[in-house]
Amino acid sequence: MLIIKKAVILLSGGLDSTTTLAIAKSQNYELYALTFRYGQRHELEVQAARKVSNFFNVKDHLIADIDLRLFGGSALTDDISVPKDRSIVEMNAEVPVTYVPARNTILLSFALAWAEVLKCNDIFIGVNALDYSGYPDCRPEYIEAYQQMARLATKAGVEGQELNIHTPLIKMTKAEIIQNGVNLGVDYSLTLSCYDPTSNGEFCGKCDSCQLRLKGFAEAGLADPGHYFSMEKDSVV
User: Fold this and answer.
1) pLDDT tens digits, residue range 128-146?
2) How would you classify the pairing of strands 164-166 and 60-65?
3) What is each CA distance from 61 to 6, 8, 104, 116, 164, in whole angstroms?
4) Can you say whether the dihedral through the CA atoms of 166, 20, 136, 215 is positive or negative?
5) pLDDT at res. 180
6) pTM of the prediction?
7) How many CB atoms lie within 10 A of CB 202?
8) How far is it, in rounded angstroms, from Cα 21 to Cα 59?
9) Considering only CA atoms, which of 31, 40, 33 is closest in space to residue 6?
10) Residues 16, 191: contact at Cβ < 8 Å?
């Protein structure tokens, strides 16, 4: 009898989560994508996630509505300016204002609930501990602690089913992530990385996420297929 491996993949529509989805597919998982409309600055992120899920022909794609604007505290969910034109040194100096308080903990909890219902032992998340722009909930020790908690907090866990949180990108540079994705057939023109895009989806080219993306493509020796608003692509950090 054929045993189907299921995986829940957190899919934002960005470069990292899309590559993570491609990796899960290459490992022969049946794909269940989970995207959030959490009060972020724009709907374009959700639209990108839809395009990516269609491209990979996922088994199911859920879009969950939650509203982290109730708490604010981030440039992505509050009336706070998105930092622009920062150097890598500046990005790594402190936790940036684009950090959304407890976001990965909240999103992983939704993924955990869906995984239990699906009788699925595997969750994929595209966190990265190298080019990660200072987010505390992208570190290996955080993921390890969350996984242990998940095994203690669920019916599946106490019945002996070990839930695994996969972080295939966690030790990769952005260039390595991109190269892996290209090798797996990812169409990065479908993805949206910018924190502050225009209304028609053009990237600002100046926020931390755009800068890291541009740097990654440059170091991989590849052209970035992203759509940028009036900028010189060779002006990367």
Assistant:
1) 987 655 688 999 999 999 9
2) unpaired
3) 13, 10, 18, 16, 20
4) positive
5) 98
6) 0.93
7) 16
8) 12
9) 31
10) no
Contact 68, 77 (CB under 8 A): yes
How far, in Å, CA of 234 to CA of 95, rounded?
26
Q: What is the mean pLDDT of the chain?
A: 92
What single letter denotes the amino acid at residue 72?
Answer: G
Predicted confidence (pLDDT) per residue in 28-66, tens digit:
999 999 999 999 988 899 999 999 999 999 999 999 999
The position carrying tokens 């491996």 is 5
In the chain, % of residues over pLDDT 90: 79
Q: Identity (one letter) of the amino acid at 37? A: R
Q: Please count the CA atoms within 13 angstroms of the CA of 103 that sit on its side-chain side.
A: 25
> What is the per-residue DSSP string for the chain?
-PPPPEEEEE--SSHHHHHHHHHHHHTTPEEEEEEEE-S-S-SHHHHHHHHHHHHTT-SEEEEEE--GGGT--STTTSS-PPPBS--HHHHHHS--TTPPTTHHHHHHHHHHHHHHHHT--EEE----SSSSTT-GGGSHHHHHHHHHHHHHHSHHHHTT---EEE-TTTT--HHHHHHHHHHTT--GGG----SS--TTS-B-S-BHHHHHHHHHHHHHT------BSS--TT---
At the fourth CATH level, the homologous superfamily of domain 6-175 is HUPs (3.40.50.620)
Compute the distance between CA of residue 211 and CA of residue 204 in angstroms, rounded to an integer.
10
